[in-house]
Design brief:
Helices cover 30% and strands 26% of the residues. It contains 14 helices and 24 strands. Bound molecules: uridine-diphosphate-N-acetylglucosamine (UD1).
Amino acid sequence: MDRIRIVGGRRLEGRIPISGAKNAALPLMIASLLTDRKLTLENLPRLADVNQLTRILGNHGVDYSIDGKRKGEGETSGQTVHLEARVIVDTTAPYELVSKMRASFWVLGPLLARMGEARVSLPGGCAIGTRPVDLLLMAMERLGAQIDIEAGYVVARAPKGLRGAEIDFSKVTVGGTHMALMAASLAHGTTVLHNAAREPEVTDLADCLTKMGARIKGAGSSTIEIEGVARLGGASHAVLPDRIETGTYAMAVAMTGGDVLLEGARADLLQAALDALVETGAEVASEKGGVRVRRNGGDIRPVDIVTEPFPGFPTDLQAQFMGLMTRAAGVSRIRETIFENRFMHVQELARLGAHIRLDGDTAIVEGVPVLKGAPVMATDLRASVSLVIAALAAEGETIVNRVYHLDRGFEHLEKKLGGCNAEIERLSNPG
Ligand code: UD1
């Protein structure tokens, strides 16, 4: 299993290209199941989760091809892929595939809408809480599906097709909103989603579905109206930049000090997180080519945050922000309201010398002047990158084990940081 070795203490200087958003790429790829025409996605990141979803979609009958590199394109440029689901050959998504990635459960919506049936294994994914699917199933039931749970599988049937309905989410759910958007696009009649997720990735999916012929109003707000259509067609769509990757590298710069241009990043996608960074003492500026983050000397100021659905501070940046706060000049309180059990990085950060105490859904972080490198273990996708951030500022060597978690969501992490003066390398283990 690969490991990453980091020797801390260097300032980050230079440019980091920001990839297409993983959390937009996955639902966009799944949307290819809704049509027998070709869906072309540009700026798709090269990630383990994207590859895994390719396998899952292939199992349903989606043909997948990747454009070769064009002249002048580097390794970090996003790829262009074509997905074509001319015939759905199988409406079952098996346990062996779905258990590796929770988002693959979302195939249920489009398969049900197009084929009138789907059989999808209950999901696995990051171990960050119980993560139920009750709201996703409620949405499909509201659209007229009959849902049964059989031997670990959700079996959904709507032989006469789905019908538009009012769907009221009791809690904001990104996956529930994605799935309802896709399914309702092919339902008979009009659907209204109340308390819909407002995340930029939802808007990106709605934009792509609209290009495919869907009729959607209000994406990006908490009420979305979808007028179902009989068929959807092909489209070409560029995946929006990854706001979590942007925030992660922004926090890394705030941690080490330095000056980095995050190329292609959009500040409006993560304003709450950037505002928090500015409070810590970093400078953040939108420029033509992206977002520039700087910090020159001075203390890292402690800042309290609470994770919230968009436009609040994202839960997917909570661990990284905690990494930064371990070196702050004072005490900060970090409250996680989206997922219980999303504090697995706390024990690992402690191995680097961080002082963190947990009190229910809140972590109380007492900043320390020095972190010291140590062997640590990646536990989930976002938690593991918080260890990288801490290691970049720690004295001596840190080895991050189990980096397959990082590979699920960060494209060329060691190359991107290494290109900005960090001392970081991947140690490949043949075994
Ligand atoms: C997505 C993101 C993930 C992010 C999360 C919250 C992708 C691939 N993943 O995950 O990175 O951390 O949004 O921004 O885009 N819930 C229920 N019942 C349900 C569904 C959800 O109670 O049926 C709860 C969850 O347990 C959680 C909250 O709702 O407490 C939000 O979850 P949700 O927004 O659905 O997360 P995901 O879509 O799985």
